[in-house]
Description:
The protein is mostly helical. The chain folds into two domains: 4-102, Rna Polymerase Sigma Factor, Chain: A (Orthogonal Bundle); 105-134, no CATH class. The protein has helices at 4-17, 20-30, 34-42, 44-47, 57-74, 83-100, 107-110, 115-124. The radius of gyration is 17 Å and the shape is elongated.
Amino acid sequence: xxxxxxxxxxxxxxxxxxxxxxxxxxxxxxxxxxxxxxxxxxxxxxxxxxxxxxxxxxxxxxxxxxxxxxxxxxxxxxxxxxxxxxxxxxxxxxxxxxxxxxxxxxxxxxxxxxxxxxxxxxxxxxxxxxxxxx
Length: 134
């Protein structure tokens, strides 16, 4: 793992040069950190999805990897947002949207916290929900 200073420098260089080489270097430098970044930005309950052995582990890390690539392509330092902040926002949005795709509940119910029941059902391996859980 690279020291923080060199990661920041790499992000700064990518922001200035916007070259394929700096983009690749930035993605390769941050890829090993994706599980930790994702766990930090999605919250403790959803972070259980990232534990080894969970059926959704690979899907969540794939979503985080996609977010990393998109963040490297879209980040503009002249807009005033630091790379780490931009990456955290992109990873959070992408992983939460991936989690939502595993729920058949409408968004208004998920907004009331019912989504956690559905996510817990996926974690526990039960596909069915009883009406009492809803």
